[in-house]
Amino acid sequence: MMDIVERLAAELGEGRVLTGGAIPERHHADTAGLPPTAPRAVVLPRSTEEVSAALRLCHAAGQPVVTQGGLTGLAGGAHPREGEVVISLERMRGVEEVDTDCATLTALAGTPLQVVQEAAEAAGLLCGIDLGARGSCTIGGNIATNAGGNQVLRYGMARRNVLGLEVVLADGTVVRSLNKMLKNNAGYDWTQLFIGSEGTLGIVTRVVLGLHPRPEGVATALCALGSAAEALALLAALERRFGGGLLVFEGMWREFIAVATERLGQARPFEATHEVLVLVEAAVGDAARLEDALGDFVEAGLIRDAVVARSGRDRARLWAYRETPYEYRTVFDRYVGFDVSVPRARIGEAVTALRAAATARWPDAAQVIFGHIADSNLHVMVMPPGADAAMKDMIERVVYGIVAGFGGSVSAEHGIGRTKRPYLALSRSPEELALMGMMKRALDPSGLLNPGRVL
Ligand code: ZN
After folding, report:
1. Tens digit of pLDDT for each residue in 300-347?
2. Per-residue pLDDT tens for 42-88?
């Protein structure tokens, strides 16, 4: 009798199923930093029908599977466990259609986000999903994790950009709603259930995205503020002044700027040290309009200082501060990173509490706080020299405890995966967890899809 791997190879063809040394090492891990693990096999389907056949066989054999896309996830959702079969969507790529009248784009799940963005751009439209990993992450992974990013305040998380989905259920059934209509209230919108489910309820194979008009005349500025409360006042003032034109509102607290200037050699953005700097982008038509607005705000005492980009080079220089975390590996031997959210009104209090807790417990550790203030999303990093696993656990317990105390979330945009699973109950009530368990059991009764992730 054939085992499951032989059956997969027999059904899909030898070239679709890799085992042993034929498995490229990239399939051994995602970006969460867990120890690499070789899966039992890697299946590389080229069509929805092949995904369906693979799941049908795995379901019949009781074989656990883990779905992989671009492997840029930070929570271990796509990181294989011993004995699992990987279903990688990397060969299911391609934008199938851009419909300019409907302003929609249809793509296979394994299409890299950047390819989706470029197809939208070529049609004079914009994909509302954007994040740093755009070159390697896939649109299917973005949807499975309900990805966020830097323009969520304008376009929402991945969820708000999805109009239709095709998914394969645990038993291989294909369910399709390639809807292109903004309005469609014909019963439950089941597609929403799969967005952010991190591969635990089914495999997304095809997606219809709603596209947006391309914003014109985008201006960039860096604003200096004395507190998180001042940043929220600036946010409200910009929204009043520019309506839906505000695209980016990224906060960087003073320790973050100190690392950028003192450790990574960037020029000081302002003479004085300020509690928080905010990188702003808005579609204002002309940079002078943003400059006028910020000039008024300085005069009114709403902000302490500001600099507006006058050229593409200026813009790159301002964005370079926000992008310094990508260089942290060059100056810190390790760090413990967080992706949390707290209600916007309490961000200032939360920053004070996090800072005090880290300073009291780990005085030698550098700590930085930055994030998407408008989305209530903070990224916190604590860099203790020579931290071991026990210290990492301790830091996580302290930070998540503080976040929970503010009624916040242990995952704002990266998902729960494996790494945050022990902390899910800090952000969800027993009734919510029970409801999630009911959904999981209804859609994956044998528990074969991404087991040990999320729930
Ligand atoms: Zn982020």
Report:
1. 999 999 999 999 999 999 999 999 999 998 999 888 999 999 999 999
2. 999 999 999 999 999 999 999 999 999 999 999 999 999 999 999 99
Vertex 95 angle, CA 93 and 98, to 5° = 170
Rounded-to-integer distance, Cα 347 and Cα 449, Å: 36
CA distances from 129 to 153, 178, 217 (A): 11, 19, 20
C-alpha 447 – ligand 1 centre gap (Å): 30
Alpha helices in 25-76, H assignment, sequence order: 48-61
Q: Of the candidates 151, 149, 288, which has an alpha carbon nearest to the alpha carbon of residue 221?
A: 288
Q: Judging by beta carbons within 10 Å of its beta carbon (0-12, 13-18, 19+), is residue 189 exposed, middle or buried? A: middle
347-361 helix and 389-405 helix, angle to the nearest 10 degrees: 150
The residue among 97, 5, 90 whose CA lies nearest residue 46 is 90
Distance from the alpha carbon of residue 414 to the mean position of ligand 1, in angstroms: 8
Q: pLDDT tens across 201-224, in order?
A: 999 999 999 999 999 999 999 999
Enumerate the H helices of 170-311 as residue ranges: 191-194, 228-242, 254-258, 287-299
449 beta partners:
65
Rg of the chain (C-alpha set) = 23
Ligand 1 center to residue 12 CA distance, Å? 38
Two structure tokens written together for 137: 């992450």
- Please enumerate in sequence order all residues whose Cβ is within 8 A of that of 192, keeping only pairs 6 or more positions apart, or say none: 159
Q: For residue 316, how many other CB atoms are within 10 A of its CB?
A: 12
Q: How far is the CA of 111 from the centre of ligand 1 (A)?
A: 21
> Distance between CA 429 and CA 426 in Å, rounded?
8
Distance 345 CA to ligand 1 centre (A): 19
Find, among 269, 271, 393, the residue nearest to 319 by Cα: 269
pTM for the predicted model, two decimal places? 0.95
